[in-house]
Batch of 3 targets.
Target 1
Amino acid sequence: MNNGYFGKLLWVNLSDSIIREKKPPEKFYRQYFGGYGLGCKLLYDNMPPKIDALSEDAILGFFPGLLTGTAAPFSGRYMVVGKSPLTDTWGDANSGGTFGPAIKKCGYDGILITGKADSPKYISIVDGETEIRDAKKIWGLDIKEAEEELKKIHGRFIKTAGIGVAGEKLSKMSGIANDGGRIAARSGLGALMGSKNLKMLLLKGKTKIPIYDKKTFNNLVKEYNEGFTDLEGGLINKIISKIPKMPKMMSKVGANSGPASLIKRVYHNYGTPFTNTISALSGDSPVKNWKGVGVEDFPVEKAQKLSTERINKYKIHEYGCYSCPVQCGAILKIPEIGLEETHLPEYETCCSFGTLLLNDDLMSIFKINEMCNRAAIDTISTGATIAFAIECFEEGIINKSDTDGLELNWGNSDAIIELTEKIINREGFGEILADGAEEASKIIGKGSEKYVMASQGSLLPMHDPKVYSTLALSYAYDPTPGRHTTASGEFEDTAPYDKFITNLEYPKKKYKDMESKAQTLYLNTGMHQTYCSVGLCIFARYMGEYPFIELINAYTGWDISVEECIESGIRIQTLRQAFTLREGTILAKNKLPGRSVGDPPQISGPNEGITIDYQKDYSYLCEKLGWNPENGVPLKKTLKNLDLEFVIEDLY
Ligand code: SF4
């Protein structure tokens, strides 16, 4: 049947080497789409509750979004899912590049891996044949080296996703990398893959996607892409190059605000580091392990050393994910440190190893980015864990005898590089830090826990809730805590969904009163979960109106509406929540580190005097979602309305 998806999943059990294809019920697709939506439903149904995240029964899933693999703009994402070894909650992480489409080209809507191999293995799915193969020769190699080795056996046209040394050594900060350095980085899912003794997934296939109404689909894509011309934009570039001198103005309007035509060019020409300098000064970037103030501790002279103009001097060419009309990535050449080809570091990396550590040495950031990509470790978690270690050192909680002789002072870039290397390899002091700051503080003790800037073990990302207050909601309470890419209010409003699709109505004044605020958060939550499960890149929303509903319907033959999208998104979020609750974690009781929410408030800088009451926001949101505000448990009525009755016996 031509309805876009294949109706087929691949299950691989590494304990007994059994490989099976299974058909999920048809209705799963319309209720959960693909990506982590479909992944969550399958893991909820098939994984025993409360097991150790790294046990043999734990399931690791790879799911392309519903539209992934098609020409739909920005639809190239895939999502890795599992129980997070870092937080013990629902875990997911996503990545772009070309690996997601390759899953579709193998004819699958998802690949699920269970069991544990008795020695290192990789799974190859080549032209319809799946094999579990010996990986001893590539175990211990970084992800670029390992892929090169596999190309010698399987040819140049393979696509791979796998773990580096960090995942092999079960670091709870490790991720899964594809395309030589794009990482599904968060939730520590690299450790889950490592625990299965699985080094890589290798894909090659030619299966065609059975689009329902190809003509309409292609016309929608063509019409949309016609808006992406002249991305270089001469005059616009000149204006943007002045932005570092306008931090005050940008802090008022938000770094991502602006007409879609401008945003497209900015992303294409500069990628996410365009915001490095602006965010350092506007209060968006956390500074000095969240206790500093950008304009004082990392002033414009320092912040500009990480500016996009300096980074762009090293650019060889742009590149991007499959079917992306913007292409925000780039390959750089850095002769100063002997890097012939390296990925452009993202904003999150530049901030977590720059502003957060008061490190203005751009070369060190290039180097660390390459090291972390090759080792497939999350740069946010690693940088934030080093920030914790530096503060412990500066406060005298640890000294050189603990740090293998490293002088861990703010901005000491040589020491930061060396410590990153130690964390990746679990060497010396790196062994203590390798599972993140929260685990490290349990070993270090001596009051060090007050310097852990994490939520449920997940190190906080590089956007300050004091600028976008409802980010605190996501950081504290999303089923994958400590994430900036989950739905919240003002952060989503830098690219609101009613500018992305038609027929979505927000309250007239979104944050006028608690009822309007809760309704806004509810709509954002529903839209966001659907959007991610369909496989769109988060930046698509910044690029203007998109034929979202139209593409889904042309692809599947459904007659889906905005209301149904929102309902399905709420279903997905409620099931992610139920997964986390079933594991025994009640995030409603979770508390964020005081510094992140202005408790006590900062006494100077752009965020002076601001304190965020995120607990109150959550109560209102829970009521809107039909969840009990006391504990975040979805009400029975809500579960019935969302066709999630199967959850009731687990939670009641
Ligand atoms: S905007 Fe960037 S991250 Fe998003 S799909 Fe395009 S290239 Fe990938």
Target 2
Amino acid sequence: MADYRNCMECGADLLADDIAIHRKLIQRNAEEFYCIDCLAELMGHTRPEIEKLIKYYRDSGQCTLFR
Ligand SMILES: [Zn+2]
């Protein structure tokens, strides 16, 4: 079960990035997650902005959530 999650809002399948950015932006130890679309709406951002953040954290190599 560990690696299979769905968005708690819309039920979309989640990728590792979706989970990582949720943990980064919402709650580090979250057990339920939003997909990027729902997360973007929740935070008042657009999907491209969230994707840009994901890329930023991934490229920085600083965040252990994005490895
Ligand atoms: Zn969703």
Target 3
Amino acid sequence: MPMSFEYRGMLINLPDFDRERKEYFEHAAQKKLVVQKCKGCALLRWDPGPACPWCQSLEWTWQQVSGKGTIYSYEIVTHAIQPGFRDWVPYPVALVELDEQRGKPSPDEGVRLITNVVDENFNPEKEENVGIGKRVEVVFLPVAEGVFLPQFKLSKEQPTERVWQFQNV
Ligand SMILES: [Zn+2]
């Protein structure tokens, strides 16, 4: 069955042929964050897709991850292209590096996800609270009946590296 749901007034369709993304959301519905693990080279990857970016193998399996990570980079959106996010501006979008597989397959790589950074009420986190190096953890935003979107919120863990922000506020 194709998945179809509305998110912030936008219609999201996940057709049957997008098996990887559908299964990703099926795991999210059980409050599990999963990434693909290649059966060829054993590396983890995100975003969901058919082939391994490292070795091109089409063989893979799902692996649940801790949902803990660090903000690797971020931006503040001040002009929302999608109408559904206009009332959110300014809001942060982050590239989160998961704790799993940091520094592999090379010292500059890891498993990184694009995500909104939200507070405990699933509203956008304030700009002054977001910074590179801050610790985050996954939360599952209820979007529609049986549909949860993995998002990240700031964790209570202290950063293990120097925090960098766009501006000192
Ligand atoms: Zn591979």
